[in-house]
């Protein structure tokens, strides 16, 4: 996923408000676009409206996820509900893939039998959509770098922005040349644009659910950095995975020679992992080098009870 950072409560609240604004204006424009598409007979408008419908659903899911993921941990769910964010991104990606395939199918049908399209009203509706999507892009841009959930919503709005540009271009081509195939051609372009970006989002969500190593972290680099810490002799059974956007976890077995040095070594390892790799949730199991005599280590003795 990229080098995202952990989002604090205030930032999440701010992103949630922005997401709600984008949801509201997108829903309003969806209604306008459906009416415009039906009145003008434009597939490009209806294709974009279908995409907008998934956006409204996706934004609603994202809003729900941002609220639900803040629920506190329970004894049964000790990590809390962080992964709900990933599930939301996964659902959005699957919906976008299906709508893209449908747009391509409908564009193919219209290549065979191009319908009559009212280009001027079609362009007017698309210009409104262009403004709406520009506002959405502005509101979600910062959050898209911090959260895979916000990133999914951002990609949906970004694809809508380009869809609106495409509809405007199709309308201009039909107005100036009368070429009816401009409408399905632009529609196919919209579908083809959405697919690879949605596939990338889907892969990111699946990788998190499969507990794959985050893309910006090299497992070998982490292991070498840990072994380079003074007092560490070996690191094995090393695992790194993503809990949710900006939250990374690590577990490892660490071999040292002197057990009494473990407290300082552990502090150094945790500082290294947090500062260099943004890994803040660590579970380290210590092992003493074979041959080291544990009985030589002196622990503070508990005071004896007085009789």
What would you say this structure looks like, in words?
The protein has helices spanning 9-40, 43-68, 84-112, 119-144, 148-177, 182-209, 219-227, 262-277; strands at residues 232-244, 247-256, 279-288. By secondary structure, the chain is mainly alpha-helical. The protein has 2 domains: 9-209, Up-down Bundle (Alpha-lytic protease prodomain-like); 219-296, Alpha-Beta Plaits. A 3-stranded mixed β-sheet has the order 1-2-3. Strand 1 and strand 2 form a beta hairpin. Helix 1 packs antiparallel against helix 2. It is elongated and about 80 Å long. The termini are far apart.
Write out key terms for the chains shown:
single chain, 307 residues, mainly alpha, Alpha-lytic protease prodomain-like, Alpha-Beta Plaits, 2 domains, three-stranded mixed beta sheet, 3 strands, elongated
Give a quick account of the main beta sheet: strands, pairing sense, barrel closure: 3 strands, mixed
Rg on CA atoms, Å: 27 Å
Give the ordered list of helices and strands.
HHHHHHHEEHE
Structural class: mainly alpha
Q: What is the level 1 CATH name of the largest domain?
A: Mainly Alpha
- pLDDT average, as an integer? 77
Name the CATH superfamily assignment of the largest domain.
Cation efflux protein transmembrane domain
Q: List unreliable stretches of 5+ residues.
A: 1-7, 293-307
Number of helices: 8
How are the SSEs ordered, and which strands pair?
Blueprint: H1 9-40, H2 43-68, H3 84-112, H4 119-144, H5 148-177, H6 182-209, H7 219-227, E1 232-244, E2 247-256, H8 262-277, E3 279-288
Parallel strand pairs: 2-3
Antiparallel strand pairs: 1-2
Helix pairs in contact: 1-2, 1-4, 2-3, 2-5, 2-6, 3-5, 3-6, 4-5, 5-6
